[in-house]
Design a protein that fits this description.
The chain is α/β, with parallel strands linked by helices. 37% of the residues lie in helices and 20% in strands. It folds into 2 domains: 116 residues, Rossmann fold; 95 residues, Arc Repressor Mutant, subunit A (Orthogonal Bundle).
């Protein structure tokens, strides 16, 4: 999932970005309201963390413009303005949550996770055939057998499972899982898809990760009982 941190104090912004990246999220940062709005117009974020005291405009103006969109991400206000009137004003303006500075990162992370769970049809546990993913405990199983995934592998798989049956381009995958723009040259998505297939598909007759020619990848399965695992084929030499 991809988050946007809108914070003009670089020390706090860096702290938030490092912590959220360590928790498995892709994170962009904006130091002004103008840059924040450019980001939100160009990218579909899963959550925005918004400071109110920005150098070019009040954070509530940014919030108002985000809320004017047909579909906008949840917004968590993170501000030194801790008075009751400020909190009420922020929530009435459309914020989904309000946390005052100073704050404990563990509380911020808990609130982020709670907001991300809202409105999700399967907020914690995702299922495709006999492949299961627990987004909170960050566990993956297939046929009841635990599968160990690296953080980026988990991020790609979660994104694909939340979009079951929807072809996803390499650009979409990179923008939601990595902190970089897709430059059309990297094959990093293909490499990670190969890693995922080796862990969740190769031992099974029913393949879940599908290549969509000219677009990218998709995860889905026919409505039929899961197959039993087959013996691992010997590794071929290059």
């Amino acid at each position: 999932m991809r988050l946007l941190v809108v914070e003009d104090e670089k020390r706090i912004a860096d702290f938030l970005c490092r912590g959220l990246q360590g928790a498995g999220y892709a994170v962009d940062a904006a130091g002004t309201g103008g840059v924040a709005l450019e980001h939100t117009h160009a990218t579909d974020y899963d959550l925005v963390i918004l400071d109110l005291m920005l150098p070019d405009m009040d954070g509530l103006q940014v919030l108002e413009k985000i809320r004017n969109r047909k579909v906008g991400p949840p917004v968590l206000i993170l501000s030194a303005r801790g008075a009751l009137d400020d909190r009420v004003k922020g929530l009435e303006a459309g914020a989904d949550d309000y946390l005052t500075k100073p704050f404990a990162f563990v509380e911020l992370l808990a609130r982020v996770r709670a907001l991300l769970r809202r409105g999700q049809p399967t907020p914690e546990k995702l299922q495709v055939a006999d492949l299961g993913l627990d987004a909170i405990r960050r566990k993956v199983t297939r046929g009841g057998e635990a599968i160990e995934l690296a953080p980026k592998e988990f991020g790609i798989l979660e994104y694909m499972m939340r979009n079951r049956g929807r072809p996803l381009s390499r650009t979409m995958i990179v923008e939601h899982v990595w902190d970089m723009d897709y430059d059309g040259l990297t094959n990093i998505v293909d490499v990670y898809i190969r890693h995922l297939r080796s862990k969740i598909d190769d031992r099974y007759q029913q393949k879940l990760i599908q290549t969509v020619r000219g677009i990218g990848y998709m995860i889905d399965a026919p409505d039929k009982p899961p197959e039993r695992p087959v013996e691992q084929a010997p590794e071929r030499l290059a």
